[in-house]
Design goal:
mainly beta, two-stranded antiparallel sheet, 555 residues, 33 strands
Length: 555
Amino acid sequence: MIAYIIKKNTFLLALLTFVSISVNGQNNLGTIKGNIQTDVQYYNPDSLIGAPVVPEKMLMNGFANIIYNNKDFEAGIRYESYLNALQGFPVGFQGTGLPYRYARYKTGTLDVTAGNYYEQFGSGMIFRSYEERGLGYDNAMDGFRLKYSPINGVYMKGVYGVQRLFFGKGEGIVRGIDGEVVLNELTDSLNKKLKPRITLGGSFVSKYQKDDNQTYTLPENVGSYAGRVNVFWGDVYFSGEYVEKINDPSVDNNFIYKKGRGLLFNTSYSTKGLGITFSAKSIDNMSYRSDRDEELTNLLINYLPATTKQHTYNLPATLYPYAVQPNGEVSFQGDISYKFKKKSLLGGKYGTQVSVNLSNAYGLDSSLIQNDSSRMGYETNFFSPGKEVYFSDFNIEIRKKISKKLKLVYSYFDMRYNKDVIEGKIGDGLVNARIHVLDLAYKINRKNTIRVEAQHLGTNKKNGYYEDQGNWATGLIEYTVSPHWTFAVLDQFNYGNKEEEKRIHYLFTSVGYIKDANRFTLSYGRQRAGIFCVGGVCRNVPASNGFTFTVTSSF
Protein backbone atom coordinates (compact mmCIF):
# COMPACT_ATOMS: atom_id res chain seq x y z
CA MET A 1 0.00 0.00 0.00
CA ILE A 2 2.81 2.41 0.93
CA ALA A 3 4.62 1.59 -2.30
CA TYR A 4 1.46 2.31 -4.26
CA ILE A 5 0.97 5.71 -2.57
CA ILE A 6 4.58 6.70 -3.23
CA LYS A 7 4.33 5.56 -6.85
CA LYS A 8 1.29 7.77 -7.33
CA ASN A 9 2.93 10.75 -5.59
CA THR A 10 6.42 11.42 -6.94
CA PHE A 11 6.55 14.66 -4.95
CA LEU A 12 6.04 12.66 -1.76
CA LEU A 13 8.88 10.32 -2.72
CA ALA A 14 11.26 13.25 -3.20
CA LEU A 15 10.07 14.78 0.07
CA LEU A 16 10.67 11.60 2.06
CA THR A 17 14.12 11.24 0.49
CA PHE A 18 15.03 14.79 1.51
CA VAL A 19 13.81 14.18 5.05
CA SER A 20 15.79 10.95 5.25
CA ILE A 21 18.98 12.73 4.18
CA SER A 22 18.34 15.52 6.71
CA VAL A 23 17.73 13.07 9.55
CA ASN A 24 20.69 10.79 8.79
CA GLY A 25 23.10 13.65 8.13
CA GLN A 26 22.57 15.58 11.38
CA ASN A 27 22.57 14.86 15.08
CA ASN A 28 19.38 16.88 15.42
CA LEU A 29 16.69 14.58 14.06
CA GLY A 30 14.06 17.32 13.97
CA THR A 31 10.48 17.04 15.24
CA ILE A 32 7.26 15.54 13.96
CA LYS A 33 3.85 16.88 14.93
CA GLY A 34 0.33 16.62 13.61
CA ASN A 35 -3.35 16.13 14.24
CA ILE A 36 -6.07 13.67 13.29
CA GLN A 37 -9.84 13.94 13.10
CA THR A 38 -12.54 11.45 12.16
CA ASP A 39 -16.29 12.15 11.88
CA VAL A 40 -18.61 9.18 11.47
CA GLN A 41 -22.36 9.60 11.12
CA TYR A 42 -25.03 6.88 11.10
CA TYR A 43 -28.29 7.93 9.43
CA ASN A 44 -31.81 6.83 10.28
CA PRO A 45 -34.61 7.42 7.76
CA ASP A 46 -36.93 10.21 8.93
CA SER A 47 -39.46 11.43 6.37
CA LEU A 48 -41.15 13.69 8.94
CA ILE A 49 -38.19 16.13 8.98
CA GLY A 50 -37.24 15.57 5.32
CA ALA A 51 -34.03 13.66 6.04
CA PRO A 52 -32.79 12.13 2.76
CA VAL A 53 -32.29 8.38 2.47
CA VAL A 54 -28.62 7.40 2.83
CA PRO A 55 -27.93 4.11 0.99
CA GLU A 56 -24.67 3.47 2.88
CA LYS A 57 -26.39 4.07 6.27
CA MET A 58 -23.03 5.30 7.61
CA LEU A 59 -20.75 8.04 6.20
CA MET A 60 -17.29 9.22 7.23
CA ASN A 61 -15.00 12.23 6.87
CA GLY A 62 -11.44 11.97 8.14
CA PHE A 63 -8.05 13.64 7.84
CA ALA A 64 -4.55 13.45 9.29
CA ASN A 65 -1.86 16.15 9.13
CA ILE A 66 1.79 15.16 9.61
CA ILE A 67 4.42 17.93 9.75
CA TYR A 68 8.19 17.49 9.99
CA ASN A 69 10.47 20.34 11.20
CA ASN A 70 14.26 20.48 11.19
CA LYS A 71 15.79 23.94 11.69
CA ASP A 72 15.00 25.93 8.53
CA PHE A 73 13.25 23.06 6.78
CA GLU A 74 9.60 22.04 7.10
CA ALA A 75 7.60 19.44 5.20
CA GLY A 76 4.10 18.08 5.55
CA ILE A 77 1.38 15.90 4.13
CA ARG A 78 -2.35 15.59 4.74
CA TYR A 79 -4.24 12.35 4.19
CA GLU A 80 -7.99 12.72 3.64
CA SER A 81 -10.76 10.14 3.45
CA TYR A 82 -14.43 10.55 2.49
CA LEU A 83 -16.23 7.17 2.49
CA ASN A 84 -18.55 8.64 1.50
CA ALA A 85 -18.69 12.31 2.50
CA LEU A 86 -21.13 13.37 5.23
CA GLN A 87 -24.48 14.70 4.03
CA GLY A 88 -24.26 18.36 3.05
CA PHE A 89 -20.63 18.25 1.93
CA PRO A 90 -19.82 18.85 -1.76
CA VAL A 91 -20.25 15.58 -3.69
CA GLY A 92 -16.77 15.96 -5.19
CA PHE A 93 -15.25 14.87 -1.88
CA GLN A 94 -15.29 11.11 -2.41
CA GLY A 95 -12.62 8.49 -1.82
CA THR A 96 -9.20 8.82 -0.23
CA GLY A 97 -5.89 10.41 -1.11
CA LEU A 98 -3.06 12.82 -0.29
CA PRO A 99 -4.33 16.12 -1.71
CA TYR A 100 -1.99 18.30 0.37
CA ARG A 101 1.82 17.96 0.50
CA TYR A 102 4.55 20.55 0.67
CA ALA A 103 8.18 21.37 1.42
CA ARG A 104 9.19 24.74 2.87
CA TYR A 105 12.57 26.34 3.46
CA LYS A 106 13.00 29.50 5.55
CA THR A 107 16.22 31.31 6.23
CA GLY A 108 16.86 34.96 7.03
CA THR A 109 14.76 37.04 4.67
CA LEU A 110 13.84 34.22 2.25
CA ASP A 111 10.90 31.82 2.51
CA VAL A 112 10.21 29.32 -0.29
CA THR A 113 7.38 26.76 -0.48
CA ALA A 114 7.01 24.04 -3.11
CA GLY A 115 3.76 22.08 -3.33
CA ASN A 116 0.57 23.10 -1.55
CA TYR A 117 0.10 26.25 0.49
CA TYR A 118 -2.42 28.80 1.70
CA GLU A 119 -1.90 32.53 1.25
CA GLN A 120 -3.73 35.85 1.30
CA PHE A 121 -3.12 39.29 -0.22
CA GLY A 122 -4.53 42.15 1.84
CA SER A 123 -8.13 41.59 2.90
CA GLY A 124 -8.46 38.71 0.43
CA MET A 125 -10.68 40.55 -2.07
CA ILE A 126 -8.09 39.95 -4.79
CA PHE A 127 -6.56 36.67 -3.60
CA ARG A 128 -7.10 34.27 -0.72
CA SER A 129 -6.27 30.59 -0.65
CA TYR A 130 -7.59 28.96 2.51
CA GLU A 131 -9.41 26.00 4.04
CA GLU A 132 -12.66 25.97 6.01
CA ARG A 133 -13.15 22.31 6.85
CA GLY A 134 -16.63 22.71 8.32
CA LEU A 135 -17.86 24.08 5.00
CA GLY A 136 -16.06 21.49 2.88
CA TYR A 137 -14.11 24.38 1.36
CA ASP A 138 -10.47 24.09 0.28
CA ASN A 139 -8.92 26.02 -2.62
CA ALA A 140 -5.28 25.28 -1.69
CA MET A 141 -2.70 26.37 -4.23
CA ASP A 142 -0.36 23.79 -5.79
CA GLY A 143 2.85 25.24 -7.17
CA PHE A 144 5.45 27.62 -5.76
CA ARG A 145 5.32 30.48 -3.27
CA LEU A 146 8.15 32.91 -2.57
CA LYS A 147 8.39 35.42 0.30
CA TYR A 148 11.25 37.87 0.49
CA SER A 149 12.18 40.94 2.51
CA PRO A 150 14.98 42.83 0.71
CA ILE A 151 15.26 45.55 3.38
CA ASN A 152 13.67 46.38 6.71
CA GLY A 153 10.01 47.30 6.32
CA VAL A 154 9.58 45.89 2.79
CA TYR A 155 7.81 42.55 2.40
CA MET A 156 7.14 40.81 -0.91
CA LYS A 157 5.49 37.56 -1.85
CA GLY A 158 4.62 35.82 -5.08
CA VAL A 159 2.43 32.82 -5.89
CA TYR A 160 2.22 30.63 -8.99
CA GLY A 161 0.18 27.47 -9.41
CA VAL A 162 -3.17 25.80 -9.83
CA GLN A 163 -6.01 25.40 -7.32
CA ARG A 164 -7.28 22.32 -5.58
CA LEU A 165 -10.63 20.97 -6.79
CA PHE A 166 -11.60 18.11 -4.45
CA PHE A 167 -9.01 15.38 -5.21
CA GLY A 168 -7.94 17.00 -8.48
CA LYS A 169 -6.80 20.38 -9.81
CA GLY A 170 -8.56 23.21 -11.53
CA GLU A 171 -7.97 23.93 -15.18
CA GLY A 172 -6.78 27.52 -14.78
CA ILE A 173 -3.38 28.81 -13.69
CA VAL A 174 -3.16 31.53 -11.02
CA ARG A 175 -0.22 33.97 -10.76
CA GLY A 176 0.15 36.83 -8.29
CA ILE A 177 2.53 39.22 -6.56
CA ASP A 178 2.01 41.29 -3.43
CA GLY A 179 4.13 43.99 -1.83
CA GLU A 180 3.89 45.76 1.49
CA VAL A 181 5.84 48.66 2.99
CA VAL A 182 5.75 49.44 6.71
CA LEU A 183 6.97 53.04 6.76
CA ASN A 184 7.94 52.95 10.45
CA GLU A 185 10.33 50.05 9.89
CA LEU A 186 12.30 51.58 7.01
CA THR A 187 14.68 53.54 9.24
CA ASP A 188 15.19 54.17 12.95
CA SER A 189 14.61 57.87 12.32
CA LEU A 190 11.17 57.26 10.78
CA ASN A 191 10.26 54.91 13.59
CA LYS A 192 10.96 57.64 16.16
CA LYS A 193 9.42 60.57 14.28
CA LEU A 194 6.35 58.93 12.72
CA LYS A 195 3.67 58.67 15.39
CA PRO A 196 1.10 56.60 13.47
CA ARG A 197 2.13 53.15 12.23
CA ILE A 198 1.46 53.25 8.47
CA THR A 199 1.49 50.29 6.09
CA LEU A 200 1.02 50.61 2.32
CA GLY A 201 0.39 47.62 0.10
CA GLY A 202 -0.41 46.62 -3.46
CA SER A 203 -1.21 43.41 -5.33
CA PHE A 204 -1.55 42.07 -8.86
CA VAL A 205 -3.16 38.71 -9.67
CA SER A 206 -3.95 37.10 -13.00
CA LYS A 207 -5.44 33.82 -14.13
CA TYR A 208 -5.00 31.92 -17.37
CA GLN A 209 -7.60 29.62 -18.90
CA LYS A 210 -7.84 28.52 -22.51
CA ASP A 211 -10.77 29.92 -24.49
CA ASP A 212 -12.74 26.92 -25.75
CA ASN A 213 -16.17 28.59 -25.77
CA GLN A 214 -18.11 28.12 -29.01
CA THR A 215 -20.40 31.11 -28.45
CA TYR A 216 -18.24 33.97 -27.13
CA THR A 217 -14.69 35.20 -27.57
CA LEU A 218 -13.35 35.08 -24.02
CA PRO A 219 -10.21 36.61 -22.48
CA GLU A 220 -7.69 33.88 -21.66
CA ASN A 221 -5.72 36.09 -19.25
CA VAL A 222 -7.76 37.99 -16.67
CA GLY A 223 -5.83 40.41 -14.48
CA SER A 224 -6.78 42.19 -11.28
CA TYR A 225 -5.01 44.69 -9.06
CA ALA A 226 -5.45 46.20 -5.61
CA GLY A 227 -4.10 48.96 -3.37
CA ARG A 228 -4.46 49.25 0.39
CA VAL A 229 -3.48 51.26 3.44
CA ASN A 230 -3.47 50.46 7.18
CA VAL A 231 -2.97 53.07 9.89
CA PHE A 232 -2.59 52.55 13.65
CA TRP A 233 -2.50 55.75 15.68
CA GLY A 234 -2.91 55.31 19.40
CA ASP A 235 -6.45 54.13 20.03
CA VAL A 236 -7.52 54.59 16.40
CA TYR A 237 -7.22 52.10 13.53
CA PHE A 238 -8.11 52.54 9.86
CA SER A 239 -7.77 50.23 6.87
CA GLY A 240 -8.93 50.62 3.30
CA GLU A 241 -8.55 48.59 0.13
CA TYR A 242 -9.67 49.07 -3.47
CA VAL A 243 -9.64 46.24 -6.03
CA GLU A 244 -10.41 46.12 -9.72
CA LYS A 245 -10.70 43.20 -12.14
CA ILE A 246 -10.75 43.41 -15.93
CA ASN A 247 -13.61 41.88 -17.90
CA ASP A 248 -14.14 38.30 -16.79
CA PRO A 249 -17.12 36.64 -18.51
CA SER A 250 -18.25 33.56 -16.57
CA VAL A 251 -21.22 31.46 -15.55
CA ASP A 252 -21.55 33.66 -12.44
CA ASN A 253 -22.26 36.86 -14.39
CA ASN A 254 -23.95 35.27 -17.42
CA PHE A 255 -20.85 35.92 -19.56
CA ILE A 256 -20.93 39.70 -19.58
CA TYR A 257 -17.79 41.79 -20.22
CA LYS A 258 -18.21 44.33 -17.44
CA LYS A 259 -15.22 45.05 -15.18
CA GLY A 260 -15.36 44.13 -11.53
CA ARG A 261 -14.42 46.34 -8.60
CA GLY A 262 -14.62 46.48 -4.85
CA LEU A 263 -13.96 48.89 -2.00
CA LEU A 264 -13.67 47.96 1.66
CA PHE A 265 -12.74 50.04 4.67
CA ASN A 266 -12.74 49.50 8.42
CA THR A 267 -12.15 51.92 11.25
CA SER A 268 -12.15 51.44 15.00
CA TYR A 269 -11.53 53.25 18.24
CA SER A 270 -10.78 51.48 21.50
CA THR A 271 -9.96 52.60 24.99
CA LYS A 272 -10.51 51.14 28.42
CA GLY A 273 -14.13 50.03 28.65
CA LEU A 274 -15.14 51.34 25.20
CA GLY A 275 -14.81 49.96 21.68
CA ILE A 276 -16.31 51.42 18.48
CA THR A 277 -15.98 49.90 15.00
CA PHE A 278 -17.41 50.77 11.62
CA SER A 279 -16.97 49.03 8.27
CA ALA A 280 -18.37 49.53 4.79
CA LYS A 281 -18.06 47.61 1.56
CA SER A 282 -19.16 47.84 -2.05
CA ILE A 283 -18.56 45.05 -4.54
CA ASP A 284 -19.64 44.85 -8.15
CA ASN A 285 -19.14 41.79 -10.38
CA MET A 286 -16.30 40.46 -8.21
CA SER A 287 -16.75 36.72 -8.62
CA TYR A 288 -13.21 35.57 -9.54
CA ARG A 289 -12.48 31.91 -10.34
CA SER A 290 -9.68 30.06 -12.06
CA ASP A 291 -12.35 28.21 -14.09
CA ARG A 292 -15.05 30.41 -15.60
CA ASP A 293 -17.49 27.49 -15.87
CA GLU A 294 -17.44 26.42 -12.21
CA GLU A 295 -20.12 27.31 -9.67
CA LEU A 296 -20.88 27.22 -5.93
CA THR A 297 -17.62 27.60 -3.95
CA ASN A 298 -15.41 25.77 -6.45
CA LEU A 299 -12.08 27.34 -7.53
CA LEU A 300 -12.65 30.81 -6.09
CA ILE A 301 -9.48 32.89 -6.29
CA ASN A 302 -10.63 35.63 -3.95
CA TYR A 303 -12.59 36.07 -0.74
CA LEU A 304 -15.18 38.77 -0.12
CA PRO A 305 -15.28 39.62 3.62
CA ALA A 306 -18.64 39.81 5.35
CA THR A 307 -19.61 43.13 6.89
CA THR A 308 -22.25 41.52 9.06
CA LYS A 309 -21.88 40.09 12.55
CA GLN A 310 -21.09 36.37 12.72
CA HIS A 311 -23.41 34.88 15.33
CA THR A 312 -22.79 31.80 17.48
CA TYR A 313 -26.20 31.09 19.02
CA ASN A 314 -28.17 28.43 17.18
CA LEU A 315 -31.24 30.24 15.86
CA PRO A 316 -29.63 33.44 14.51
CA ALA A 317 -26.57 31.56 13.23
CA THR A 318 -28.30 28.80 11.27
CA LEU A 319 -31.76 30.03 10.24
CA TYR A 320 -30.94 33.45 8.78
CA PRO A 321 -27.18 33.90 8.26
CA TYR A 322 -26.03 36.21 5.50
CA ALA A 323 -24.11 34.95 2.48
CA VAL A 324 -22.06 37.61 0.65
CA GLN A 325 -23.36 38.31 -2.85
CA PRO A 326 -20.30 38.42 -5.18
CA ASN A 327 -22.16 39.87 -8.15
CA GLY A 328 -22.97 43.02 -6.24
CA GLU A 329 -23.85 44.49 -2.86
CA VAL A 330 -23.36 47.56 -0.69
CA SER A 331 -23.10 46.87 3.02
CA PHE A 332 -22.38 48.68 6.28
CA GLN A 333 -21.76 47.59 9.85
CA GLY A 334 -21.33 49.49 13.11
CA ASP A 335 -20.60 48.14 16.57
CA ILE A 336 -20.35 49.81 19.97
CA SER A 337 -19.24 47.96 23.09
CA TYR A 338 -19.16 49.58 26.52
CA LYS A 339 -18.41 48.19 29.97
CA PHE A 340 -20.13 49.94 32.85
CA LYS A 341 -17.71 50.14 35.75
CA LYS A 342 -17.93 48.02 38.85
CA LYS A 343 -20.04 49.48 41.66
CA SER A 344 -21.68 52.01 39.33
CA LEU A 345 -25.47 52.28 38.99
CA LEU A 346 -25.62 50.09 35.85
CA GLY A 347 -22.43 48.18 36.50
CA GLY A 348 -23.38 46.74 39.85
CA LYS A 349 -20.89 44.78 41.90
CA TYR A 350 -19.03 43.19 38.98
CA GLY A 351 -19.60 45.55 36.05
CA THR A 352 -21.83 45.12 32.98
CA GLN A 353 -20.79 44.71 29.32
CA VAL A 354 -23.23 46.03 26.68
CA SER A 355 -22.72 45.65 22.91
CA VAL A 356 -24.91 47.12 20.18
CA ASN A 357 -24.47 46.08 16.54
CA LEU A 358 -26.19 47.16 13.33
CA SER A 359 -25.49 45.84 9.83
CA ASN A 360 -27.25 46.33 6.51
CA ALA A 361 -26.69 44.92 3.02
CA TYR A 362 -28.37 46.26 -0.12
CA GLY A 363 -28.38 45.52 -3.81
CA LEU A 364 -26.47 47.83 -6.13
CA ASP A 365 -27.96 51.04 -7.46
CA SER A 366 -27.91 49.75 -11.04
CA SER A 367 -29.81 49.75 -14.31
CA LEU A 368 -29.79 47.36 -17.26
CA ILE A 369 -28.21 48.54 -20.51
CA GLN A 370 -30.68 48.56 -23.37
CA ASN A 371 -29.64 47.17 -26.77
CA ASP A 372 -26.54 45.76 -25.10
CA SER A 373 -24.53 44.65 -28.15
CA SER A 374 -21.24 44.94 -26.21
CA ARG A 375 -22.58 42.63 -23.47
CA MET A 376 -21.67 45.00 -20.62
CA GLY A 377 -24.84 43.95 -18.81
CA TYR A 378 -25.66 46.90 -16.57
CA GLU A 379 -24.47 50.23 -15.21
CA THR A 380 -23.97 51.03 -11.53
CA ASN A 381 -23.47 53.98 -9.23
CA PHE A 382 -20.54 52.64 -7.25
CA PHE A 383 -20.93 52.60 -3.46
CA SER A 384 -24.53 53.69 -3.83
CA PRO A 385 -27.06 51.26 -2.29
CA GLY A 386 -30.10 50.31 -4.31
CA LYS A 387 -33.67 50.06 -3.05
CA GLU A 388 -33.64 46.29 -2.52
CA VAL A 389 -32.72 45.16 1.00
CA TYR A 390 -30.70 41.94 1.07
CA PHE A 391 -30.18 41.69 4.81
CA SER A 392 -30.32 43.75 7.99
CA ASP A 393 -29.48 42.85 11.57
CA PHE A 394 -29.87 44.95 14.70
CA ASN A 395 -28.71 43.16 17.85
CA ILE A 396 -27.98 43.95 21.50
CA GLU A 397 -25.95 41.82 23.88
CA ILE A 398 -25.74 42.31 27.66
CA ARG A 399 -23.16 40.35 29.68
CA LYS A 400 -23.54 40.44 33.44
CA LYS A 401 -21.83 38.62 36.29
CA ILE A 402 -24.55 38.25 38.92
CA SER A 403 -22.41 36.61 41.58
CA LYS A 404 -19.20 34.63 41.89
CA LYS A 405 -21.06 31.58 40.62
CA LEU A 406 -23.69 32.94 38.23
CA LYS A 407 -23.17 34.68 34.86
CA LEU A 408 -25.84 35.94 32.49
CA VAL A 409 -25.90 36.83 28.78
CA TYR A 410 -29.02 38.28 27.16
CA SER A 411 -29.17 38.90 23.40
CA TYR A 412 -31.84 40.39 21.15
CA PHE A 413 -31.82 40.23 17.35
CA ASP A 414 -34.05 42.02 14.86
CA MET A 415 -33.38 40.63 11.36
CA ARG A 416 -34.62 41.08 7.81
CA TYR A 417 -33.58 38.33 5.42
CA ASN A 418 -34.20 38.32 1.66
CA LYS A 419 -34.71 34.65 0.77
CA ASP A 420 -35.21 35.47 -2.92
CA VAL A 421 -31.65 36.81 -3.17
CA ILE A 422 -29.71 34.85 -0.55
CA GLU A 423 -31.21 31.41 -1.18
CA GLY A 424 -32.62 31.90 -4.67
CA LYS A 425 -36.13 30.90 -3.52
CA ILE A 426 -38.17 33.24 -5.65
CA GLY A 427 -41.47 34.19 -4.07
CA ASP A 428 -40.46 33.90 -0.41
CA GLY A 429 -39.49 37.56 -0.25
CA LEU A 430 -38.24 39.41 2.81
CA VAL A 431 -38.54 37.54 6.11
CA ASN A 432 -38.73 39.58 9.34
CA ALA A 433 -37.52 37.75 12.45
CA ARG A 434 -36.99 38.73 16.07
CA ILE A 435 -34.92 36.50 18.34
CA HIS A 436 -34.41 36.51 22.12
CA VAL A 437 -31.62 34.49 23.76
CA LEU A 438 -31.01 34.03 27.49
CA ASP A 439 -27.77 32.27 28.45
CA LEU A 440 -27.12 31.39 32.11
CA ALA A 441 -23.99 29.70 33.46
CA TYR A 442 -23.81 28.53 37.10
CA LYS A 443 -20.57 27.24 38.63
CA ILE A 444 -21.63 24.66 41.19
CA ASN A 445 -18.09 24.09 42.45
CA ARG A 446 -14.53 24.03 41.17
CA LYS A 447 -15.20 21.15 38.76
CA ASN A 448 -18.93 21.27 37.99
CA THR A 449 -20.70 23.88 35.84
CA ILE A 450 -24.19 23.94 34.37
CA ARG A 451 -25.21 26.20 31.48
CA VAL A 452 -28.76 26.81 30.25
CA GLU A 453 -29.88 28.51 27.03
CA ALA A 454 -33.42 29.60 26.16
CA GLN A 455 -34.02 30.95 22.64
CA HIS A 456 -37.13 32.15 20.83
CA LEU A 457 -37.58 33.25 17.23
CA GLY A 458 -40.74 34.91 15.99
CA THR A 459 -41.66 36.08 12.49
CA ASN A 460 -44.31 38.49 11.23
CA LYS A 461 -47.73 37.30 10.12
CA LYS A 462 -48.54 37.47 6.42
CA ASN A 463 -51.94 36.46 5.02
CA GLY A 464 -52.86 34.93 8.36
CA TYR A 465 -49.70 32.82 8.70
CA TYR A 466 -46.29 33.42 10.19
CA GLU A 467 -43.58 34.09 7.59
CA ASP A 468 -41.26 31.35 6.36
CA GLN A 469 -41.15 28.45 8.88
CA GLY A 470 -42.89 30.47 11.55
CA ASN A 471 -41.89 30.57 15.20
CA TRP A 472 -39.17 28.51 16.90
CA ALA A 473 -38.31 27.78 20.53
CA THR A 474 -34.95 26.30 21.52
CA GLY A 475 -33.70 25.05 24.87
CA LEU A 476 -30.23 23.81 25.82
CA ILE A 477 -28.84 22.30 29.03
CA GLU A 478 -25.09 21.71 29.18
CA TYR A 479 -23.33 20.13 32.16
CA THR A 480 -19.52 20.15 32.44
CA VAL A 481 -17.38 18.09 34.80
CA SER A 482 -13.86 19.50 34.48
CA PRO A 483 -11.51 18.56 33.04
CA HIS A 484 -12.91 15.55 31.19
CA TRP A 485 -16.67 15.38 30.65
CA THR A 486 -19.38 17.44 28.93
CA PHE A 487 -23.06 16.46 28.61
CA ALA A 488 -25.67 18.38 26.61
CA VAL A 489 -29.34 18.14 25.65
CA LEU A 490 -30.83 20.43 22.98
CA ASP A 491 -34.44 20.71 21.82
CA GLN A 492 -35.72 22.86 18.97
CA PHE A 493 -39.46 23.15 18.48
CA ASN A 494 -40.92 24.64 15.30
CA TYR A 495 -44.24 25.29 16.99
CA GLY A 496 -45.32 28.14 14.70
CA ASN A 497 -45.06 26.39 11.31
CA LYS A 498 -48.15 26.94 9.14
CA GLU A 499 -48.00 23.25 8.17
CA GLU A 500 -49.15 21.37 11.27
CA GLU A 501 -47.24 18.18 10.43
CA LYS A 502 -44.00 20.18 10.61
CA ARG A 503 -44.64 21.42 14.16
CA ILE A 504 -42.19 18.93 15.58
CA HIS A 505 -39.37 18.70 18.11
CA TYR A 506 -35.72 18.31 17.10
CA LEU A 507 -34.22 16.62 20.15
CA PHE A 508 -30.44 16.22 20.18
CA THR A 509 -28.12 14.89 22.89
CA SER A 510 -24.34 14.68 23.12
CA VAL A 511 -21.56 13.60 25.45
CA GLY A 512 -17.90 14.60 25.17
CA TYR A 513 -14.76 13.28 26.83
CA ILE A 514 -11.34 14.96 26.84
CA LYS A 515 -8.14 13.26 27.88
CA ASP A 516 -4.80 14.99 27.27
CA ALA A 517 -4.77 15.94 23.55
CA ASN A 518 -7.64 13.58 22.67
CA ARG A 519 -11.33 14.43 22.41
CA PHE A 520 -14.22 12.02 21.85
CA THR A 521 -17.78 13.15 21.13
CA LEU A 522 -20.88 11.00 20.69
CA SER A 523 -24.23 12.54 19.80
CA TYR A 524 -27.67 11.34 18.78
CA GLY A 525 -30.85 12.97 17.60
CA ARG A 526 -32.51 15.04 14.95
CA GLN A 527 -30.83 17.93 13.18
CA ARG A 528 -32.99 20.28 11.15
CA ALA A 529 -32.10 21.48 7.69
CA GLY A 530 -30.33 24.81 7.73
CA ILE A 531 -27.49 26.94 6.47
CA PHE A 532 -23.99 26.79 7.89
CA CYS A 533 -21.87 29.91 7.28
CA VAL A 534 -18.37 31.08 8.13
CA GLY A 535 -17.37 34.63 7.22
CA GLY A 536 -20.14 35.07 4.67
CA VAL A 537 -19.40 31.77 2.86
CA CYS A 538 -22.20 29.24 3.31
CA ARG A 539 -23.39 25.73 2.54
CA ASN A 540 -26.78 24.07 2.94
CA VAL A 541 -27.00 21.29 5.53
CA PRO A 542 -29.82 18.76 5.01
CA ALA A 543 -31.93 17.40 7.85
CA SER A 544 -30.66 14.23 9.50
CA ASN A 545 -31.48 11.72 12.21
CA GLY A 546 -28.93 9.41 13.79
CA PHE A 547 -25.65 8.99 15.62
CA THR A 548 -22.47 11.04 15.15
CA PHE A 549 -19.11 10.03 16.56
CA THR A 550 -16.09 12.36 16.38
CA VAL A 551 -12.50 11.74 17.43
CA THR A 552 -9.82 14.45 17.39
CA SER A 553 -6.23 14.09 18.52
CA SER A 554 -2.98 16.01 18.19
CA PHE A 555 0.62 15.02 18.79
